[in-house]
Input
Amino acid sequence: QVRLVESGGGLVQAGGSLKLSCAASRSSVSIISMAWYRQAPGNERDLVAEITTGGSVNYADSVKGRFTISRDNAKRTVYLQMSTLKPEDTGVYYCKLGTRTYDYWGQGTQVTVSS
Output
């Protein structure tokens, strides 16, 4: 079993920045990718950014140029640096760890951007 611990959410004004972190508890799992998803009230959980073991990254169009995903393999941690935040970025942000056979999810961290 893999436990993902997220941190860094909070309340910020529009135009501000936040950095999210997600640490995986188990080192023996073979990680294919790590990603951040966002779920706003009444909406589905959508991909925000993803980074593979090989370093390939993918971003939702709405966050390109504003968000940066990165990872520290030694710490089994993925980060999401969010800048120029907008009210529409508000939601619960979930970390996902993908392996060949299973996806693990964190408990989510709330990000609220006020206008």
The two ends are 40 Å apart (CA to CA). The chain has a mean pLDDT of 94. The CA atoms of residues 27 and 76 lie 7 Å apart. The chain has no helices and eleven strands.
